[in-house]
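Exercise 3.2. Students should predict the tertiary structure of the chain below and write it as structure tokens, then compare their answer with the key that follows.

Predict this chain's 3D structure.
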Amino acid sequence: MTSATAAYRKDLAANGSPFGAHDGEWIAVASLVSTAALGDSESDRAAWDAAIETATTALGARELDRLSSREWGTGWSSFDSLTLMAIAMHEAGARHLSTVVLDSLLRVRRNERDLAYGRALAQRARVAYLAGEQEVAEDFYRQVESIGTRVKSVELRARAANGFVGLAQVRGNHPAMLEVAQRGLSLAEQTGIPRLRWNARYSIMMSTALFRRFDEALEHGWELFNLVRGDVVGEALALQSLGQLLVDMGDVDSARFAFEAVVSRALPPHVLLSALGSLANASAASPSHRTTLDWAVTEVEAFRDAAAPPWAYAAALLDSAIALRDVGQISRASKLRDEVLAVTRTHGFHSLQYRAENLELDTVTSRPERAAVAAAATEIVRSVRRLAPRRLPRHVRMATFRG
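Answer key:
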């Protein structure tokens, strides 16, 4: 197993800067729980107790209450603080450190296949899925589903279903994706757990959109936004998803409003960068929005010397290059593409590198024809447009937290 310090170094390199004030406590918790996973001696048990105490103190009762309510719809106890800290680590971008904590606590509690174990295993499956480890993720989700069936937990079955949706999507099995998304939404709604309902609503939005059922997709996307109201990052991600849905529908102008609403909020760098790249692309579709395009690209470039995750920066830079190419600014687009290649080669971002290497500068982005939708969906689009600010800020405002 990777050591806590080695895992942190990997995460630090990928993130481009420390994660915050709790980095030292994160490393301490990961080290302690790793020691606890080595055996069943008195010192191992002492390390387990110390890991739980350190995680509980580091997060604090208020944050533990907030996280457990969001993730599980209930309170927390015992080693739950370790699972919740692992979730916080992963949301901040510390994937490797989160993996160390989860693998270790699952090993310690491997004989306790209960709800708490299932929750930790579902999070480990999610980490694997987002890391592109599809086979590992599927195996973990199958175990989560099995535990959920055995202990009669609708929650665990819903978590497994949501995982299967993602796996079906990356494998291109769209009929299965829609079928499982529908089942997952039904299960998630039964639980009333906020995060589960958010994820299930996102899954069904994406699934219906793939079949061009845009009225349904907009309804689910708007419901997602309403579900996450009050959660700053959640709102931004919901709006980003709605914006992309509108792009797929051929309504690029409305999509631009959604992206403008995102970049006008104080958010973590990786969320802002994604929205800025999307805003640049949407603005490139209309000659009347060249100023917005230039502003978005300049804001992306401003992250060049800032503390931002390299992958998020490179992805936004590539989006910017594509937008500039579409409006005929070939020289500037070429320079940004070269920078993307430099970043991706340094960090081993192979998928982004491949896209940049194959970016053709003598073509333009093909846009879908605008899809017709019913009156209810049209009203949702109007609601999205009303969320945009009257004018863009001078500069984007980065939140003082990451998540």
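Discussion points: Residues 195 and 207 are 18 Å apart (CA to CA). Residues 1-111 form one domain.
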